Amino acid sequence: MRVNFIALLLGCVLATGAFAVSVSDDPYAWLEEVHGPKPLEWVAQQNAASLGVLKADPRYQKNYDSVLSVLDATDRIPMGGLSHSYVYNFWQDAANPKGLWRRTTIADYQNAAPNWEVLLDVDALAKTEKENWVFKGAECSPGEVRCLIRLSRGGGDAVVVREYDLKAKALASDGFQLPEAKSDSSYLDDDTVLFATAKDGETTSGYARIVKQWRRGEKLAAARTLYEGEAGDVASAPATFHTRQGNIGLVIRAVSFFESDYFVLEKDGVNKLALPRSADVKGYFDGAWIASLRQPFETDGVSLPKGALVAFRSGAKPQVIFAPSARQSIESVGIGRDKIYAVITDNVIGAVHVFTSPASSSEAVGQKKAAGWSDKVLALPGQGSADIVSTNDFGPEAMFSFQNYLTPTTLYFDGGSDAPHGIKSLPARFDASNLITEQFEATSKDGTKIPYFVTRPKKLSGPAPTVLYGYGGFEISLTPSYSANFGRLWLTHGGIYVVANIRGGGEFGPGWHDAALKTKRQHAYDDFEAVAADLTRRRLTTTKQLGIMGGSNGGLLVSTVMVQKPELFGAVVCQVPLVDMIAFTHIGAGASWIGEYGDPAIPAERDYILTYSPYQNVKPDVRYPPVFFVTATSDDRVTPVHARKMAAKMMAQGHPVLFYENTDGGHAAAADHRQSAEMWGLSFVYLAQKLGLAP
To answer: Which residue in 166, 294, 299, 552 has its CB near the most CB atoms, within 10 A?
Structure first.
């Protein structure tokens, strides 16, 4: 089963060289030409200045070496995807910075040292083809004959798609290939691919809007058009499902970021499914479409609650599989051959539930279906994050993981008995014996209780340097996770690490997200500011010792609160951010996020956006905390335009600003381990300098 284009739109996320169309009186609009010689000269000057300051600090090299040693460590867990009798994995280390795509058998994977079969050496391919290839994933055909490989030049979202022959162990010269573009493709069967590429026509967001069916042996131009979306849509994309009932093709028309129409592929073309637009389809199981609901829905006399996991069957009333309470959320869903798995959080603490219908066992398939779904909670550790790593479309196996802020990740394997057992554990990357994690609540401006996690030394002699991290958008939850970076570079030096579960995220389901949507955006900023104030009220830190960090939408968060409440913070690290919210719809993939932020072309929404947009609200006569902007030239999703313009404007106004732009890495701002080590090494030495963390 494969439904991944929404992840592309988000992604933990368009290499056309196009630049933004901003307001005519913007004196920094010239920086919008992403690859223009004048902007790149400016970038080079800023990089030299920033690196000169930060790399001169002896802590930088220690940070870099520490992060790189963890990233390249050979005792990492090789997380993988289940398919048939294999586990597929992508691995990067010091000897293979671009990485190896490889596989081993499911049985061998459970051993301490699996015998990996290398399928593609990306470093060797890049050297041979003289291309800066970054591996962006692979998907194999249902018969495991060939695989689609996605390669990006420099790490952006635009990819080249090539076919790999599993028998020949090489890229196929006669296989399916798609030229560089934002695209999505998936095998319907071994000899048929469904695909959508922006080369065939773009939406205003820059994504594909035409979905086609391509049979082996046909020329690309002869591929059959299945569906053509509107230019004003976010995107149209294919999805495929390989089930006991056979191979199923689906076309997804994303009308907005949070609304979709679904069309199932049949002999006569595609036919629209009777699903609400608020449905987020997770897969096909036991003759039913499985979806979560972003909004309540009533049909056939059945009331389906907001946030519920629901089974829709043709000719039958929909069934609620699970309806979360006010403090619960369905975080993720994985559908295997025999069972449905869902990570459900309760007050941001996760557990894995297993759902089966009476007809979902191998013996019952094809028999008359009875009402009701079973619900079983797997025996995994509590007080942290449980996650679905992979399910098998072609077998009973599934894999899960558990971690929290102080507990390294453990990987669990379940052969189908609902009794997962640990098979691999990440060694501790820092000494946590003197650390503790606590959960508190802050009261936001409107009285809403906002939970947040504090990880700190057990004994504090007084307020300590603190990093507050947040996101608050797109229904993405920040659940407890083990971070070697924060542990090694911050916590073990006496610092405090805080994660705020503000509105706009998905910690308590779609309602928590909706509470900060569009003209309610200020709630997210009020929440973050309330957590900051609560930290100082508890005497955990002081305003001079409190730094904030966020990336992408989190970059918008920290730049906004920096401008709104500069007196609350001592330093800011703003990574791959959105900042110019009046021009965002014309920058990168910004038009796809109108459903989240609103449309500045609509006067009422523009007026609201103007109340908080950092770029329009930063002023020369206000004292702001020092800020470090981190971005990437190859980020073709948000693009470096936002960070460039904000940095230039703040510098011109006389504010303390450092700016660093990596040429590679895409929206992650790092394409390999060395680039990641540099980004985090720079970020943490900056925070240590500004907040007074002891070496």
So the answer is: 552
